[in-house]
Amino acid sequence: MNNNPIDDASEVTATQTAVAVAGPARRHESAARHAVLALCFAIAAWIIPGLGHLALKRWGRALIFFACVGCLAITGYLLRGNVFPPRSSDLFDTLGFIADASAGIFYLLAKFFERAGPDVSRAAGDYGTRFIAAAGIVNLLSVFDAYEIALGRRTM
Amino acid sequence: MIAISAVCAMIIGAHNPPRVSHFFAMSLFALLVSIALAGLTKRTAEERTKYAVSCFLKFLAVAIAIGWLMYPFSH
């Protein structure tokens, strides 16, 4: 046991110095880990609407987003709305693709529900296009919400 | 709801788009978006219900108002 007060004081100072040096580095590492985790929740929320919230134990929101995005997308497919392909030369088509692809797994289900392809010659098809795009935009909002919750910026 | 939609799609065969009126399509769109926005912005079930109903009615009111504003151009 060390009874020398001078040595004790030097140990405390060394510990404090070590903490002071390691503190910001550890905090930085923890923040980086937190950001990566939040990104994982956001990706989960994008792939399956509501999954990010489900992982964050926000059951209500998860259910609402899954049901709303699913209903919007499937209704859009039933109305034979236009599903924008990944490659296009037109900027508006690219924006349409970004909106559609934001619906995650429901974008991949387009071919299952829309076997006959889009038909925008009728008003119903035009409505369908809006429904599909809205599904993607709603899911995009849910992705940002899950990301913010995971980062702790949103408490509600 | 999704299961019902899926069953409907299989029954219809996705060849014939269901005949829906403009008002029904617009109302359905307004309802689903209102519920999503309520879920996003409010916390309790009561707050969400109130917000969703209010948002849905505002959607309808604005759409009908714009419809009437455009009415003279259709003639």
Task: Describe the model.
The complex is a heterodimer of chains A (156) and B (75). With 156 residues, chain A is mostly helical. Chain A has helices at 5-47, 51-55, 59-78, 91-101, 105-108, 110-113, 123-151. In chain A, helix 1 (5-47) runs antiparallel to helix 7 (123-151), helix 3 (59-78) runs antiparallel to helix 7 (123-151) and helix 4 (91-101) crosses helix 7 (123-151). The N and C termini of chain A lie far apart (52 Å). Chain B has 75 residues and is mainly alpha-helical. Chain B has one domain (20-74). Chain B is 76% helix and 0% strand. The longest helix of chain B is centred in the C-terminal third of the chain and has 26 residues, at 45-70. Chain B is flat, with a radius of gyration of 16 Å. The chains are: A mainly alpha (156), B mainly alpha (75). Chains A and B meet through helix 3 and helix 7 of A and helix 1 and helix 2 of B.
Low-confidence stretches of chain A: none
Radius of gyration of chain A: 25 Å
Number of domains of chain A: 1
pLDDT averaged over residues of chain B: 84
Return Rg of chain B in Å. Answer: 16 Å
Binned strand content of chain B:
under 5%
Q: What is the domain tally of chain B?
A: 1
Spatial shape of chain A: elongated
Summarize the amount of helix of chain B as a percent range: over 70%
State mean pLDDT of chain A (0 to 100 scale).
84
Shape of chain B: flat
Oligomer: heterodimer
Number of strands of chain B: 0
- Most strands sheet of chain A: none
Summed up, the helix count of chain A is 7
Which structural category fits the helices and strands of chain B?
Answer: mainly alpha
Order of helices and strands of chain B: HHH
H/I helix tally of chain B: 3
